[in-house]
Amino acid sequence: MEESKNTEVLSFKKNVENVGFEIIRLSEFYSRIDKNRQRAHIINFYAVLCITEGNGVHEINFESYPYDRDSLLFINKGQHHKWVDYENTKGYIIVFTETFLANNQLKFRDLSYSFPYNIYLYKPYLKLNAKIAPSFLNLIDFLYAEYQLPESEEKDEILQCLLRTFLLKIKSEKPVDEQYSNVLQKELFIRFQKMIDQRLHQSRNVNDYCNWLSVSYKKLNECCKAFTTKTAKNFVDSILLLKAKQLLVENKNSISQIAYLLSFEEPTNFAKFFKKHTHYTPKEFREL
């Protein structure tokens, strides 16, 4: 992976960009990390940290997640993340694109909104118990060994099949929780998430989202409370705040431009909103 100097968005190296997949031993990957990489940055692909030894801390969307041996950590595309404490850990990092998984794989469509990458429904961390850890680790070792083999006509398809198997095993560990038993309610929540991602630049008003989703305010409110314990308005505000932090960290746009990108008519209103929730002005947060 390499870093774009202008946008602080990490992309694949040119020699693997067309493939859309890479698996690297953490010991090798750590040798690539420099001072700049340790700052928060965005990735435009999916990542899985597979920890086989040691423990550490990783930051995802400004939240810290401790991890230890026999555990997996998931980073969604478009998320900010930061290497915090990592040098005594061993394992692998797997990175891949949606395209690599192939469009006809229905089980992996909308991966960003499903387990384990939907950070609003699930924690981006999975601890493997003693019974299942060996099969996971053997599969990862096999995936790495196949990736190291010379190029062939079948290599990409073999890697795709192995990655799909790995992700299916992860999905098989999906937590069983009664609050997710209402399938229709869960579908509505995910539709709401998608709509926010698509239209946050147009509106932060929940009534607009109710109209776009053809659902009542009460029903949307109940849905959000079931999965996040937040009202629909508070949920929109939480995503708005996260997007604001991301844009401020990227440092590509002025604070006024960020205000308009997040559907604030006046930069002063954006500043008031941001300070109310963080106790910092946008300028102070950017300088931090």
Description:
The chain is an alpha+beta fold and 288 residues long. Helix 6 (183-199) packs across helix 8 (217-228). It starts with a strand and ends with a helix. Residues 1-7 have low confidence and may be disordered. The radius of gyration is 20 Å and the shape is globular. Helices cover 44% and strands 18% of the residues. The chain contains twelve helices and eleven strands. Strands 1-2-4-9-6-7 form a six-stranded mixed beta sheet, covered by helices on one side. It has a five-stranded antiparallel beta sheet with strand order 3-10-5-8-11.
Topology, element by element:
Elements lengths: L1 E2 L5 E3 L2 H4 L3 E5 H5 L10 E3 L2 E8 L2 E5 L2 E5 L3 E5 L4 E6 L4 E7 L1 H4 L23 E3 L5 H16 L6 H17 L11 H17 L6 H8 L3 H12 L3 H19 L4 H7 L5 H12 L3 H6 L1
Parallel strand pairs: 2-4
Antiparallel strand pairs: 1-2, 3-10, 4-9, 5-8, 5-10, 6-7, 6-9, 8-11
Q: Using the alpha-carbon principal axes, give the shape.
A: globular
If helices are DSSP runs of H or I spanning 4 or more residues, what is the number of helices?
12
Strands side by side in the biggest sheet = 1-2-4-9-6-7
Quickly give the structural class.
Answer: alpha+beta
β-strand number: 11
The N- to C-terminal Cα distance equals: 27 Å
Radius of gyration: 20 Å
Helical content stands at: 40-55%
Which regions have little confidence, pLDDT < 50, spanning 5+ residues? 1-7
Global mean pLDDT: 84
Give structural attributes.
288 residues; alpha+beta; five-stranded antiparallel β-sheet; 12 helices; globular; disordered N terminus
